[in-house]
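Section 5.1 Outputs to date
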Amino acid sequence: MPVLTDQGRALLSDARAVAGDVDVLKARAKNLAGGLEAELSVAVDVMFPPAPLTAAVAAFQREFPSTLLKFEVESSAVVEPVFDGRCVLGLVGSWSRLPPNIACEPLLTVSALTIVSPRHLLATYHAPIPATVLAGHIQLIHMDPADVSPSRVSTIQSARFWRLSHLGAKLAFLRAGLGYGALPLHVIEADLASGALVQITLEDAPSEGFLIAMSAIHRTDSPPGPAGRWFIDRLKQQDARWLQEKARLSVAAAAKRQRSHNGSLALIRSMAGNRPPTVNR
């Protein structure tokens, strides 16, 4: 029986790799002939919740293994890469200014709370804070004014504001007590639970925070193909699953807090019951 030499084994390995590449090319050619995109480019606002996004991406890769996914994660300037054709889809927040030739489909909503460090002066207010008080403090924002609608710009509360293009920088500044600002609940949940940040209530804002509508956008003259359409629909499905999971976690967290509270009361009563008798002198 013939035995391959070292050179032969090396060539066999290369041949198998080439054969695999040919199979991939054949599959992509077949999909392209059927109208399937060879590539799907998506611009994503950094505020978009990662849980439903990553779940949809994982499902997309299983469903369309031959379609290349490309992402651009932006601080808020998501409309521009869709408008100029660099991206087919955009996942944007309701603050974005949309040109007439951009179509928009609602996907999900996120809650944004106004927060500060517990060391910040605003944390001492136990009543809704009026705009006159906010005006004396630094407001931290991180959105690009070029991509923000006039109604969103009008929510700037202070004449002193710092615009931070990096979400992580804004979070670090908030933790350091350098100002106040709003962030989505899914970004700050851990900080709220640990006490690193606290929620403040504004006089002209709902106590449960602002609701941000997240949407999928695309050019009206370049609608998404089958893969892009599937990705949008999958994100809508993931929204329902994400909300159910958030509700389950919220109930569990509330129960945990209640058990902790009950345990503390029991400990206090126990200590009171075991207190040494008072000696009158």
